[in-house]
Amino acid sequence: MFAICSNASSQVASSRDTVYSIEEIVVKGGRIETGIYWSPSSVKVLDERKISTVNGSRLSDILKTTGNVFMKTYGGDGSLSTISLNGLGAEHTLVLIDGKKINSFQNSQADLSLIPKDKIEKIEIMSNGASSLYGSNAIGGVINVITKSLRNDNPKAELSGTLGSYGYNKYSVNYGNSTGNLKYDLFYSREKSKGNFKYIYYDGTSRNERERNNNGFVADNLYLDLNYRTGKKNEIRFNSGFFSQKRDLPGIEAGTPSSSAQQRDINWNNNLSYSHFLNEAVSISSDLNYQNNLMKYTEPGLDESHYRNRVLTGLTTLSFKNKYFKNTSGFEVTYADISGSSFDETASRKQCSIFTAGEINVSDFLKLFPSLRYDYISDIGRDVYTGKFGLNFKPVTGINLNLRTSIGNNFSAPTFNELYWKNIGNRNLRPESSVNFDAGLIYRFDLITQNIIELNYTRIRLEDKIVWKPAEFGLWKPFNIDISESNIFSIEINSRKRFNDDFEMEIGYGYTYNSSVKKSYDYPGDASYGKQIFFIPVELSKMNLGVNYRNVSLNFFYSFTGKRYSDFENKERLPVIDLLDGNIGYTIKVNKITINTKFEINNVLNEDYIIIQGYPMPLRNYKINLSLIY
């Protein structure tokens, strides 16, 4: 799915009410509001309408259909899902919710299967490094999830239920209203599944259909949003998301009985923000974010593993804009700690940051984008300076063609696991660092349909990469020893056509070539030198087709995942994947109630596939959803 531009309404409206446009879309991923066509790097925007058309119920389900995104998924619904952008790992992709980092300080990753899509309004995807804006982890790119809030003063109520294969069921309730200057929104959902899906197992001589046992989950999600505004100058918003999931962990498929291990995740994310608009040009905002995340792992016969991650972040920004210049500057203070069974004592980190980012309008055809940031990381005693410079140039008057490029350095701080894991942590680790360069173009034109073509090239050289290797006494320890280089070429095409008030169609295509290779020797004659990083596909190709006729919608999502390797020396290759998903929806209105139904088919072609070695994926499966909106 390639939502490069859309001002379309959500799926709850009929196609008669939908208006498409290729007008500029404003994004905030760069801390400054910038149109996506004038951005110095590629930015994709997935709006609420696009989000509603995809199959599934989690953030990971949305992103797997998108551009050059590669999702590392370890099974069916509820299983661990992490992201890879630009040939790098999940620890190098920064994930934000309403601009607040949710990557764990324990391992720098974010499990996207733990984020429900119900309250997601928009997703911004920055396909390059942004440490000069956001600090650590933003080497490969940034995912910014923007949550929903009540849009007007009218009350809203929604009931929804879903049934699916493998004993899947979900129900949710949402109510929003306003009183005086206060708007409030409350949401609850419960989702569960037995999860014992069918798959094909190859034992070395024959292929047989088997059932993935001990693969169920149950998840509860509670969300509260309060918004208080006095006039046009002051706004206070508080939102709190509580997510609890218990899932079975069947383990690697090796022909033996499934593991009976379980994992319990409890994530509580709270954000309080205050904005004051001095005038049309100047505004001040302050945010306080608190996260308390608990993970417990249990397996019969073994000791329980448990970890508690807590994060408290304060952020204050000052923004200024006029006809020629925009600037956002601020400071950020973060305290994070972890306690758990693999740590001798509570480990903690204080991180203080100062940043500034600007947009300079040199002329109607040229914009410059400088940004700088300073971070101090207390537990490793490091000062880190990052910067980025980008430009966007429109060379021909009257033609909607924009050329863009940027260059900057980025970093990723060592994780608590790498520094403090009992007996094997390495407290001498340095931050990983990179130099990123990208260049590309975006071109809008009308030819039979409304069309957008985007071409991009990205180069990332990552140094001091932290890897685990054998050390003394047979233990594995982390060291700053690796260098990798990623060269990524991508093309995306999006076309829309409205034939009349009843019928419209959209088609999108994207292709990515990704050469991400190791550029360092661990030892003389290291056979992994110059080889593709394991599990990173060399080629990705994705296509989507959406058709709306009156109150009926039909959507298909195709993805091709090319060759990828399961070992450092590229001797073992995983099979390529051709995957097709689809859904059909129907919307009717009865008085003030909108009724939506959607029937989903996942893995339409009944493909036998794996994304990560040892973790089979489900064969063809189904879901049906009914929602009532007042």
Keywords:
single chain, 630 residues, mainly beta, Maltoporin, Chain A, five-stranded mixed sheet, 3% helix, globular, disordered N terminus
Describe the protein.
The two termini are 29 Å apart. The chain is built from four helices and 37 strands. 3% of the residues lie in helices and 59% in strands. A hairpin with a 3-residue loop joins strand 10 (156-164) and strand 11 (168-179). The protein has a 22-stranded antiparallel β-barrel. A five-stranded mixed beta sheet has the order 3-8-9-6-7. The chain has a single domain, classed as Maltoporin, Chain A (Beta Barrel). The chain is mainly beta. The radius of gyration is 24 Å and the shape is globular. Residues 1-22 have low confidence and may be disordered.
CATH homologous superfamily (4th level) name? TonB-dependent receptor, beta-barrel domain
- Provide mean pLDDT, rounded: 92
Structural class label:
mainly beta
Radius of gyration: 24 Å
Number of separate helices:
4
* CATH class descriptor: Mainly Beta
Low-confidence stretches: 1-22
Portion in beta strands: over 45%
Task: Examine the coordinates and then state which fold CATH places here, giving the name of the CATH topology.
Answer: Maltoporin, Chain A
CATH architecture: Beta Barrel
Termini separation comes to: 29 Å
Number of domains: 1
Number of strand segments: 37
Major sheet description: 22 strands, antiparallel, barrel
